[in-house]
Amino acid sequence: MAANGTDAAQPTVDEVLLDGVYDNLETIGYTGPLLNDDTLSTAIQQGLSSTLYKELVLQLCASLQQLCSLECRVSSPQVPEDLEAFQLELRSLLREMDCHHKSLMESVDVLGDYHKRLLLVDYLLSELMAARLVGQDEDMDTGQSGSIPASLSAILRVYEIKQPPANVTVKQIFDKIIGSTREAVSKAPPAHLLPSLLGQSLSAEQWDTLDKINISLTSEYEVRRKMLLTRCDVTVQSFRWSDRIKGKEEEFSRVYQSHRQQLSGSAPVSLSRVLAAKPDLLTVEKTNSAAVRENTQCSVNKVLIGKVPDRGGRPRETRPPPQMPAFKTRTTDSQDQRKGGGARGRGGSKGRVQGSWSQGKKGGAKGGSWQQDKGSHGNQQQGGGKQKQYFS
Q1: 144, 150 in Cβ contact below 8 A?
Q2: How far apart are CA 189 and CA 21, in angstroms?
Q3: CA-based torsion, 335, 336, 338, 339: positive or negative
Q4: Using CB atoms within 10 A of its CB, is residue 307 exposed (0-12), middle (13-18) or buried (19+)?
Q5: Cα 129 to Cα 15, 104, 123, distances in angstroms
Q6: Any idea which of 94-98, 235-239, 250-254, 375-379 has the lowest mean pLDDT?
Q7: What distances in angstroms separate CA 173 from CA 140, 161, 176, 340, one per listed residue?
Q8: Is the CB of residue 54 less than 8 Å from the CB of residue 76?
Q9: N or C: which end of the chain has fewer CB within 10 A?
């Protein structure tokens, strides 16, 4: 009986989560009506039918979108038909934030029961406080963003620690923060926090190397993001050519730009992600898995394309190129014709030379032939001004 009494006195997981949600609401500076335990529990039980619960979830999502530069947006459901779209947007936001709660990621109905609704608020509150811890608050951006005083000030605000006096050392401040962190972790339910994926401490040189790797990868992925955004702009620009857009150019631009401005070309990934990484990051889901297809499937995927005419283009069906005619050796007649044509072209010069020698032989007087050639040569020299002879 004593054992049964002891077991009955132990709080349940939901009761521990509810106390943590109540404390976290006070930590983030919430001043609404949900600071009452009964009101908070009743709102979580009612779910989306409760205006207070719905406004709390929307406010937490909006704050995370602003601090973490998230691309997914969660819109407020105006009519009951929008509840399904609201849950899809909520799941997309959780997926972008790498939510480690399987009960929220694997189920289509994110807000199906009391435990899921309570777990969702607890997760959003934890992520919001973590975002402020890493220095993404707007107050830090206007001040010394990224500096040690601004980061420490943000951590102290999260743990509701008063600003230390000037004589307190940095070590004392960190000891106070570590003690508050351990106290907050001890209040979490069992197996609520997964172990860190890093598993060991890094030296200063390793952190410096990791920072250089992060800068290089951020620069590369920034180029890829800008390329995808450029493709998106070109694709949307091609829609303007449709006749149905005529007279609606301003409305078309307004609707597109309202979404386009939310897409950033830079990849906001910092070294704090290394410390926050969990073992579930090693699990990579396929793009065609059921969990992924729940967010990517649409009515267009169910349209089957009918038979289309065959346009060919297969390599095995193409005709071979025309062949060159076979090589043939030249015949003897063609060679003789070429020689004969050349002889006719040089017939005048050849005839004179042969004629001089033949006359010398036939006439029997060699001198006559030489005199004839000499006279002929003299006549050519005298008449050289009239016509040049390049061949004798």
Answers
A1: yes
A2: 12
A3: positive
A4: exposed
A5: 21, 20, 10
A6: 375-379
A7: 19, 10, 5, 114
A8: yes
A9: N
- Under the banding of pLDDT at 50, 70 and 90, the label for residue 9 is low
- pLDDT digit string, tens, across residues 259-310: 888 888 877 777 878 888 888 788 777 777 777 777 777 787 788 888 888 8
Which amino acid appears at position 196 of this protein?
Answer: S
To which residue do tokens 């570590």 refer? 178
Rg (CA), the chain: 46
Crossing angle (nearest 10°) for helices 170-186 and 148-158:
40
The greatest distance separating any two alpha carbons of the chain, rounded to the nearest whole angstrom, comes to 163
d(CA 59, CA 28): 12
Q: Which two tokens stand for residue 14?
A: 């939901």
Residues 6+ away with beta carbon under 8 Å from 138? 66, 67
Best mean pLDDT range from 111-115, 160-164, 233-237, 360-364: 233-237
Q: How far is CA 348 from CA 96, 301, 362, 379, in A?
A: 99, 91, 21, 17
The encoded tokens of residue 25 equal: 């609401």
Query: CB burial class (10 A; 0-12, 13-18, 19+) of residue 121?
Result: buried
